[in-house]
Amino acid sequence: MRRTRVGLIDSGLGLVSFAAALHRAAPGLDLLLATDPEHMPYGALEPAQVQERVLASARALEPWAPDALVLACNTASVHALAALRAHAEPEVPVIGTVPAIKSAARASEARGGAPFAVWATSATTASAYQRELISAFAGSTPVASVACAGLAQAIERADDAAIDTAIDAAAAATPAHIDSIVLGCTHYGLVAERIRARRPQTAHLYDSPAAVAAQTLARLGRGAPGAAGGPGGRILAVLASGRPAGLPRALEAYPAGRELLRIAPEQHT
């Protein structure tokens, strides 16, 4: 019986944590990865361009007949989720990504309204979308919006010095008494432990991969082959701007990346 296939779409390595979370939750799933290095970061594009690129990646995955698609990018989910759902559903369910602001706000409420921070790209930090999420879920809870200039790009290059510099700058911009941070870019989870190490007062990091994996499995249904667990899943395809590619060597720098390398074809770029 053919195993269930899940396609993941992002401009770059932001999809890695989501693919690893899916593999941990259901190791029998096969994965299809579509990145778009020629047009990253999506935050620098106009909304219509983001839609165009996301739909191009989805079409490039169609020969592998994915059973579900995960849009593992906050910016792409804002601008292209509706278009991708119109293109793929109801035959192929599409799962988007939202920063874990709601989860952080609930935890804050349980702690008497403790403030938290949202670390995101400069474009997302300045967006009406993030302001609306904070307004909808955080209410009167103080929230510090912190732009992490260059962090996603440094993660993409696995540039240790640039990653540390960007984390240190974001930490300096975050009020010292805040101990909870929402990771508002899908890349940032790849360096979660480095954030904790360089900002020791950070007790809580909120990210989206586990929740997105759970939602994906729910949309697939437990009867889908591989969705209920069991080993054997692998990466069937890696695309870079629509063309077959290997996984980048940069993945070796991150725990989630190393998880994927263990189930990937041998060729890397």
From TrEMBL:
Xref: Gene3D superfamilies: 3.40.50.1860
PROSITE patterns membership: ASP_GLU_RACEMASE_1, ASP_GLU_RACEMASE_2
Pfam families in the record: Asp_Glu_race
Gene Ontology molecular function: glutamate racemase activity
Domain of life: Bacteria
Keyword field: Isomerase
InterPro entries found in the cross-reference section: Asp/Glu/hydantoin_racemase (IPR015942), Asp/Glu_race (IPR001920), Asp/Glu_racemase_AS_1 (IPR018187), Asp/Glu_racemase_AS_2 (IPR033134)
Single GO BP term: peptidoglycan biosynthetic process
Protein name from the UniProt record: Glutamate racemase
